[in-house]
Amino acid sequence: MNKKITYPTGVENHGGFLRIWFMYQGERVREPLSIPDTPKNRKDASELRQSVTYAIKTGNFDYLERFPNSKQAKKLIGNSVNDISIGTMFDKFLRIKQPEISLNAMRRYICKLETCGQIIGKDRLITSITGEDLLNLRNELLTGKHRPARRRKTLKIGRTVATVNDYMTCVASVFKFAYANDYIGKNPMRIVTKLKRSKDKPDPLTTEEFERFINACLDEQTINLWTVAFYTGMRHGEICALSWEDIDLIKETITVRRNWTSVKQFTLPKTDAGTDRAIQLLKPALDALKKQQALTRLNEKHDVIIHLREYGKTRKDQCTFVFSPMINAKGNNAGVNFAATSLGDNWDRIIKRAKLRHRNAYQSRHTYACWSLSAGANPTFIASQMGHSSAQMLYSVYGDWMPEQSANQISLLNEKLSKNVPSIPHKKYG
After folding, report:
1. Which of 235, 236, 258, 307 is catalytic?
2. Is 357 designated active site?
3. What's the mean per-residue pLDDT of the chain?
């Protein structure tokens, strides 16, 4: 009676010879070894397979180097020049992406891909990355230890779901590019979905908290700056780039023409709808700007270069900046205008001094929207003031701050329509 032969995992008989199989790029592939099926050769074949699977897992597997005559290798990866590392693919993607985006956006791409490359392993081959690897990347971003960019000495555990989704979207763009250009046979990102997140609600300051906030400011310029921020809803980069040439105190308007980014570059405001928008000044903001005139209106003008949306296009503006760090500077190293990050740090210090519950500095913008909508302002008007193309975003984000005004509307309609129905012109069709 013949004894049944037991083969190690991944080793099998093929016409009296041995061959091994393993998973590569999501597919089961087989490679003949051209050695007879003997107990010793079965053991050697098993060890070979283990070394192959380990090399694939660690990103060090070169298919054509290990199996130079393999038909499978040539079918799966074609030319071995395409089998490049994750780090090289990230660099290639960034070079090609550069003309499409601003320097500020490019810096964010670089930071995100640098972090993801460190977690995955920059030296791993792009062809070795599986969907499981990318799911592990997502989990590490969500729960792993890291040092935040602004506080490098602080070790933090985990990132927000929104941040993780943002990182993974960036990685997905790289793998989409790699797949479209035949660097990989399959896109492993296809099994990676966005993490579900609860809807973030605005956390505006109440009027009592606002008073405490303003009272905790240490100088007149800081009071003026945050009053303008709360009563215009301007983005912090727009406030940093605000010049007296943009302000008409007679017409009581600000025209938003530029933004100051974290890479110390002037650009257009974030959206097309936000560019050259005229903000109608509420009285507190108007009064704050009138007070600020005495501090900076006669300061030196500066020629600044504005980087436009079209690649390589710029314009030159003459700016007398409204808010100047030189007023509060203790040395001569302060720049001619504030940085958005310095406004965030200033906000944090004021919040702490005022003993208010902490929230981020962007809440100054949310506070403007919530106060205005709670007062019954037209959402379309507020959207235009804030630089949104339509009021749809306000309805979705600030819906809870829009009071129920149905009763008022019915009273208004009864008053207008019960007396005289308005004349409506009709076109005549011949």
Report:
1. 235
2. no
3. 86
Q: Which of 183, 231, 368, 398 is catalytic?
A: 398
For residue 111, pLDDT over 60 is answered with yes
Q: Which residues of 268-281 are buried (b: 16+ CB within 10 A; e: fewer)?
A: bbeeeebbebebeb
Is 419 catalytic? The answer is: no
C-alpha angle 173/176/182, rounded to 5°?
A: 140
From the DSSP assignment, how many helices (H) and strands (E) are in the chain? Answer: 16, 12
Q: Per-residue pLDDT tens for 323-347?
A: 998 887 655 546 778 887 889 999 9
What tens digit of pLDDT does each residue of 239-278 get?
Answer: 999 999 999 999 999 999 999 988 888 999 988 877 889 9
- Judge if pTM exceeds 0.70: no
270 tagged catalytic? yes
The catalytic residue among 19, 112, 236, 388 is 388
DSSP string for residues in 300-332:
PPEEEEEE-SSTT-EEEEEE-BSS-GGGT-SSS
Q: Which CATH number applies to 86-191: 1.10.150.130, 1.10.1660.10, 3.40.50.300, 2.40.440.10? A: 1.10.150.130
Q: Where are the domains of the chain?
A: 11-81, 86-191, 213-362
Which one is catalytic: 251, 270, 290, 416?
270
Q: Which amino acid is at 252?
A: E
From 307, 365, 366, 368, the catalytic residue: 365
What burial class does residue 323 get, using C-beta atoms within 10 Å of its C-beta: 0-12 exposed, 13-18 middle, 19+ buried? buried
307 annotated active-site: no
213-362, which class in CATH?
Answer: mainly alpha
Active site residue 426: no
